[in-house]
User: Which sequence fits this backbone?
């Protein structure tokens, strides 16, 4: 700042930079952070701790820290992404050209179509609306149902989505692979199969099968597939896979 | 002796004193021009930090460290499903914006006659150059996006990628898949065909079945207890205004968190 020193002190005519240079009295930003109080002070302390912890972890770790030796983002990774993206977009265009959508008749509230259906990805939700037979009658209410069948169906949607949402809070621990956690893999498998069977239930008019049998199968097939998954994974865990990965498990014992 | 003030920040003089190639000169001139106005220097540290975080610190990945590639290679293609759904979303956004030039959400009668909305879709399919293809692309991109999102969720579940530091992103993902389904549903109603109408009927019935707030939800989403012009209008605004903004923001958040936390590798 030789400019400021050689010039006159402070100008009052509005010229000059108007910026007061920080002197020794002006606290630096880190000093300001240290001097804060209350919540911001707590935040500052926590972040300092976090930074130190990070540093310690980095020093302890036996990871190999590398300079730019990784797969280069440009051009290699970008070219790969570009190729994959154009392939995928091309696939969409191809399917779109090969299988164009049809256009049904205009809306008519007087004519109920034989089969009322949403798009395929909502079949599961539509199927959950048809769970009326499972809606319990309560003896206390004299055989009356607590809620209407359709309310029950909407609630079933909430329950299913809610269960999927809380999975991370139910299944903890470091196990990652299906082999390590046969139970949760079985739960997942039953979920996948259930989403298919409940979709089949929603289009029961189209399926050449007794609808009561279909209703029972909707719940039985997921349970059966879950059992099979569990048995298979348990066997794998005991046998082939476990021996294959013994070294890995020694390094990182399953919880 | 020059009468001009000595200037520490005489960037031009500094540039002259060095022998710069034309490319370097152009680069520096642009940089100085921008820096004088935006003070880029103040943000350089952040950029530098970002650059180092992205490129320089590459610890060995889990699979690399324990040499697990030979056991998990078959998972790897499934790790592309997230980007596939994003790409499908972008394709749907572009084709949807083009469709929006020609579509009009109007005159939602239900007496079996063709409404303005229905006619505008027919116009897109019959009269417009490449219009049928455009609609087909939009529809298929949406279908593929839903499928990819669902499979992406399965991949995350079966590789246990939702575990400890990533629970929040799992929840955001649940929100995203719901938004995707609502996106599909609102779009399904727009042509105001028989399928649209009766799907809308199911929707109204479903919202009316919700305890306590059912009627309020039906009013808010469908503009009444029966399907009318208001329904179509609301579906349209949801589909082309609210949902795109919300979904894009949530996708950005979702991907941003993946960026920060790193991809959960197979173990």
Assistant:
């Amino acid at each position: 700042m030789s400019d400021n020193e050689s010039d006159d002190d402070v100008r009052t005519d509005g010229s000059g930079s108007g910026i007061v240079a920080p002197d020794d009295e002006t606290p630096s930003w880190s000093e300001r952070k240290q001097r804060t109080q209350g919540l911001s002070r707590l935040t500052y302390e926590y972040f300092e701790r976090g930074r130190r912890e990070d540093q310690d972890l980095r020093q302890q770790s036996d990871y190999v820290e590398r300079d730019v030796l990784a797969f280069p983002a440009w051009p290699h990774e970008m070219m790969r992404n570009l190729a994959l993206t154009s392939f995928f977009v091309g696939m969409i265009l191809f399917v779109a050209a090969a299988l164009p959508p049809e256009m049904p008749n205009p809306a008519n509230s007087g004519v109920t179509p034989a089969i009322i259906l949403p798009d395929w990805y909502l079949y599961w939700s539509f199927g959950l609306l048809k769970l009326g037979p499972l809606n319990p009658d309560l003896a206390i209410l004299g055989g009356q149902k607590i809620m209407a069948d359709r309310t029950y169906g909407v609630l079933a949607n909430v329950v299913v989505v809610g269960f999927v949402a809380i999975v991370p809070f139910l299944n903890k621990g470091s196990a990652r692979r299906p082999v390590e956690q046969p139970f949760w893999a079985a739960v997942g498998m039953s979920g996948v199969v259930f989403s298919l069977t409940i979709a089949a239930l929603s289009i029961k008019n189209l399926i050449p099968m007794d609808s009561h049998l279909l209703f029972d199968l909707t719940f039985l097939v997921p349970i059966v597939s879950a059992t099979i998954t569990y048995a298979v994974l348990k066997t794998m865990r005991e046998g082939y896979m476990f021996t294959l990965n013994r070294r890995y498990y020694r390094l990182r014992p399953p919880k | 002796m020059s009468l001009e003030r000595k200037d520490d920040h005489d960037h031009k003089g500094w540039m002259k004193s060095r022998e710069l190639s034309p490319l370097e000169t152009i680069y520096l001139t642009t940089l100085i021009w921008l820096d004088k106005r935006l003070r880029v220097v103040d943000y350089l540290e952040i950029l530098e930090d970002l650059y180092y975080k992205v490129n320089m610190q590459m610890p060995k990945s889990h699979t690399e460290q324990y040499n697990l590639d030979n056991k998990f290679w078959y998972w790897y293609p499934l790790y592309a499903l997230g980007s596939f759904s994003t790409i499908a979303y972008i394709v749907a956004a572009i084709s949807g914006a083009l469709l929006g030039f020609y579509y009009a959400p109007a005159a939602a009668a239900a007496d079996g006659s063709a409404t303005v909305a229905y006619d505008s879709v027919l116009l897109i399919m019959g009269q417009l150059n490449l219009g049928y293809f455009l609609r087909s692309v939009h529809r298929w991109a949406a279908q593929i996006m839903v499928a990819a999102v669902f499979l992406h969720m399965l991949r995350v579940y079966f590789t246990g990628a939702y575990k400890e530091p990533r629970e929040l992103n799992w929840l955001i993902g649940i929100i995203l898949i719901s938004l995707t389904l609502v996106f599909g549903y609102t779009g399904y109603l727009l042509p105001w065909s028989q399928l649209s109408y009766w799907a809308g009927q199911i929707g109204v019935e479903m919202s009316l079945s919700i305890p306590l707030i059912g009627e309020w939800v039906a009013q808010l989403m469908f503009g009444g207890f029966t399907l009318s012009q208001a329904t179509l209008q609301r579906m349209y605004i949801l589909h082309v205004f609210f949902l795109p903004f919300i979904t894009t923001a949530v996708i950005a958040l979702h991907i941003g968190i993946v960026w920060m936390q790193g991809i959960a590798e197979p173990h």
